Amino acid sequence: RLLDCKRRRRGQYPANVLTEIQTQGGSELFFNITGTKINAAIAWINDVIFQAGEDPFQLNATPMPSLPGDERDFIIQGAVASYVDPTSPNYTQPADQQSVMDFADQLYDEIQKKFVADAKKRSARMETKIKDQLHEGGFRQAMFDVIQDLCTYPIAILKGPILRNKKRMKWGVSGKIEYIEEPVLTFTGVDPFDFYPSPNSRTIADGYLIEHVTFNALDLMAMRGVEGWNIDAINAALIDDSAHDLGNTINGESERRLLDSLDTQVIGTNARPFDGIEYWGPVKASLLEEWGMPLDKGVQPGDFIEVCAVKIGRQVVKAIQNPSPLNERPYYITSYEKLPRQIYGLSIPEKMADCQDAVNPTLRNMINNLALASGPQVGYDLDAFPANFDPKMFPWKQWGFNGSRANGRGVNPITFWQPNLNAAELLNVAEYFESRADDRTLIPRYAQGNGEVQGAGETASGMKMLMDSAAKGVVQLIRNLDEDIVSIAITAVYNWNLMYVPDEALKCDAQVVARGALANIIKSQTSQKQQEFLLNTNNPTDMAIIGLPGRATVLREIVKR
């Protein structure tokens, strides 16, 4: 499926289909409407997810943060003391129970307001911290890769946050350039070709996950001494010839590399990458002991533990217990069209495969018909011409033939006829199937910049209505990205900060809200309402109320959008 999707985006036939076409002769055209749809979808999604000057998420503090137990005790004790303490201005004897309760409610509201204001400040600091981590960790580039995969393959995968040592240069306090190496939370878009969920799994939390990973020698050497990595296993892997051969054993890997214009063979041992598999899933404790992984007290040899392990060649170079307290795996997936209880959904090339497969032979036949009908077909009597006759035609050619034998049979020695031109009919069929691809993918041709739109699309307001209508179909796709990838991945960063960042000023009870689909809906509705407002208030009575400055304010907001 993945190779078929890649070929369709690149506009290439499978080898067996191309052989059949070449056997029949004629045009080998691949009229690539699939690639056009994919590019339009990518541009549309990027425009929504990464809007200029906006981030794809926001961090909202909980509207009613829970008060700590000591604060609740303070409210109760303070209210009671206010009415039983003789020095208090509220002192009454005997104390009025209702007055005490009312005073406690007043104290609660005052303290709650302070907690809400403090939570907003903390969430703002945490949001700034997360934005900085996403920038340093390559989140935006990883999302670009995910969006490319989302529009091409039946699955798109984001991986992170993964803590990796990263070298960078900065201007130090001493007034000199400093080179530092520090741990950074990183994100990557996993190639669907390298992603292997366990059989019969319905979610990525089921069974196990395997990712095909590659390392160069320097990256592998840099892992020496990092927690969870085995120095002896790394040294053994560096000199193990079998550590380079995994990619050659994967079905379809050679064709994948050819489609990506990559060399199938890397010359030179030093340049060859180290192939490995990264495993996330349950492993027996007895096996972990063999790998040298320390086990918690009370763990029995037959128990299963959720781990992350990396195997290169014959060596397990890394084995650690899943760092997530909830055993969550750092992979987030979605699809262009999700299918219930399935990891893999449907991609754009798959949804419009019937249209692409109908357009290709139709247009190939049209081109073949154009070639045949571009000039007359010629038939000539072989008996009427000499042995050295040249059948090529050119202007003012003189024909010499044995007229007595030809005329004696009453046969014209040269016959011309014109093949029928069916290009118009074939073109109509191709355009029909191309238009059906709009319905399959919910990406209309006018979203790709096609100006040939009839009816309402001939006016600016009509085109706006068509685009807004088409956007409703894409909103679900954006919502898939928001809910399945963006919000969960950034929530993982938020949880990591709560557990490992020592700065207490950042700690808060908050919720990550992805802004992709929500921002698109709000933007469209707000723009429409503003335009309706300007239209309905364009009269002397309303103008006297809002005035020119008020109308100018609304116009500026519309121009911004």
What this model shows, in words?
The chain has 561 residues and is α+β, with helices and mostly antiparallel strands. A 5-stranded antiparallel β-sheet has the order 4-5-6-7-8. A 3-stranded antiparallel β-sheet has the order 3-2-9. The longest helix has 41 residues, at 460-500. It contains 18 helices and 12 strands. A hairpin with a 5-residue loop joins β2 (156-171) and β3 (177-190).
Summarize the structure.
The chain is an alpha+beta fold and 561 residues long.
SSE diagram, text form:
Elements lengths: L1 H9 L4 H10 L8 H17 L7 E5 L7 H16 L12 H40 L2 H14 L3 E16 L5 E14 L4 E3 L11 E7 L1 H6 L8 H8 L7 H4 L3 H7 L14 E11 H6 L13 E9 L2 E7 L9 E4 L13 H4 L1 H20 L4 E4 L22 H6 L5 E4 L5 H19 L18 H41 L9 E5 L1 H21 L3 H21 L1
Antiparallel strand pairs: 1-12, 2-3, 2-9, 4-5, 5-6, 6-7, 7-8, 10-11
| Terminal residue distance | 40 Å
Record field, number of beta strands:
12
Give the overall shape.
flat
Give the % helix: 40-55%
Beta percentage is 15-25%
Instruction: Classify the secondary structure makeup into a structural class.
Output: alpha+beta
Mean pLDDT: 80
Strand numbers in spatial order across the main sheet: 4-5-6-7-8
User: What is the chain-wise order of helices and strands?
Assistant: HHHEHHHEEEEHHHHEHEEEHHEHEHHEHH
Q: How is the main sheet built?
A: 5 strands, antiparallel
> Would you identify the regions where 5 or more consecutive residues have pLDDT less than 50?
453-464
**Count of helix runs:** 18
What Rg is obtained from the alpha carbons, in whole angstroms? 35 Å
